[in-house]
Amino acid sequence: MKKGYFISLEGPDGAGKTTQGLRLATTARALGIETILTREPGGTRLGDAVREILLEPAFREMVPLTEVFLYAAARAQLYHEVIAPGLAAGNFLLCDRFIDSTLAYQVYGGRMDFSFVLQANLRAIYGRLPDKTFVLDLDPASGLARRGAGAADRVEQKPLSFHSRVREGFLLLARQFPERIVVLDGSLPPDELAAIIWSNVGPELEKLR
Ligand code: TMP
Q1: Is the pTM of this model over 0.90?
Q2: Domain limits of the chain?
Q3: Ligand 1 nearest-atom number relative to CA 102
């Protein structure tokens, strides 16, 4: 029997995933649901080290294939250390970005081969896709502006045309996986978004109590 419940939050940079992740985790925990909130790239000691490499602007020489393998490596470790045990224990597993980010950024943004990247990543997660994925959709210019004045990381520094392909990529993925992916308007007020997300998954999560 399938145990636990697995949700990923996706979308372009600055779309509000992290805020919604915290809100959803807080709501679930307040109801007594065992909740694990994690993120990609990262979420493990090794994955956090890989994250530093991936986001370091000084690594201008990084080629798309290296990126694909580094994201997949961090993902394999997260799956092994956090996701698989969390789901096996019947927990609510909530991940800020997951496999769809690789498909949107590396395939649609970076023009890598779809089926190769999908297969490599399905391998990293033993085929365990999220039960539900929310894409917070936002036009890339507003997303990057929302990120504020801090120094842009290696991904944020890519041209707007790259970020536009990423956004389109998420929308194409939603058409490809309509059962799993729900697209939401990332420009809605956070309260409204949180309510929509809860109305979609609250009943499933309550079963975990
Ligand atoms: P974050 O800012 O949401 O933590 O994500 C870090 C950056 O990494 C973000 O710009 C998106 C990018 N990214 C990819 O390009 N591919 C991936 O598979 C993941 C998980 C993130």
Answers
A1: yes
A2: 5-206
A3: 18
